[in-house]
Amino acid sequence: MNLEDYFISQFRSVNIGDDGAFVDGYVYSKDAFFENVHFKTDWMSYYQIASKAMLVNISDAISMNAKPLYALLAVAMPKSITKSQMSELVRGFEDVAKKYSIEIIGGDTISNTKLDITVTIISKTKKPLFRKGVKHNDLFAFTGELGQSKKELTKLFRGGSINKKSKFVDIKLRDAFVFKTARYLRTGMDISDGLFSDLAKMTATNKIGAQLYRCISKKIACSGEEYEMLVSFDKRYRKTMLRRSECSRTKLTIFAKAKRVKYTSRCKANHF
Do residue 204 and residue 93 come from a single domain? Predict the structure, then answer.
């Protein structure tokens, strides 16, 4: 058990363990987005930073088949920040909020040595999608293309630049796919730590393993911050899922089957 898992395991609430906490019809999710941990200010504009901070949090709501309604922001800013940069942050938050019909209802601001952002999203759902529920012989699938985010991050670390439409900056969430396929899904979660790492979380939660249909390179399967969906469903719905994914213009790759075998992620942990 790594230190992150150990820390989380010390809390006893049954609502811990998914992308958000489902309580009385609402989903509550929170993620941190910190300078020099998740981004550098010379990589992204302040507008892009605020936009991505919102999107990575909205992703958690969508992955649980919930409609985001409200947002709370906590922003720690360095004293050197300018009013122009503050305005960029505001526009980034507000533009994404408007796109997803979210109302920003409050939060907190403090002075700091760097730019750190924490967002809380409050969402509502009648049919929450959890990580638990996988059954023997269910199929595992992921949406979209994987690997680009890690590739772009490597380029940034080497001093290169990336296009403003890069997946590392401009996240495309899979809300249309989730809402069209939710009735057929057993489980779901967004891919934030990499396909293999998140598959390990899902299989561990369900006390089951996974048998891969195909060889997937670590460059693809260990790429974090993809914010695609990892889902499982009954093998009877294979054709239905592929058809529904086409309706939402979403590529769906079925890559594994749930089996009573041991599954271990081959990716390096992204957390401490």
Answer: no
Rounded to whole angstroms, the Cα distance separating 144 from 74 reads 31
Residue 143 sits in the same domain as residue 254? yes
C-alpha–C-alpha distance, residues 228 and 25, integer Å: 24
Structure confidence by residue, pLDDT tens digits, 22-36: 999 999 999 999 999
Question: Cβ neighbours of residue 70 under 8 Å, at least 6 residues apart?
Answer: 102, 103, 104, 105, 121, 122
- Secondary structure of residue 70 in the 3-state scheme: strand
Are the CB atoms for 91 and 104 separated by under 8 Å?
no
Q: What is the pLDDT of residues 42-55, one digit of tens each?
A: 999 999 999 999 99
Residues in Cβ contact with 211 at an 8 Å cutoff, skipping those fewer than 6 apart: 256, 257, 258, 259, 261
Closest to 198 in 3D by CA, of 171, 219, 174, 228:
228
Give the pLDDT of residue 125.
97
Same domain, 107 and 157: no
155-168, pLDDT tens digit by residue? 998 999 888 888 88
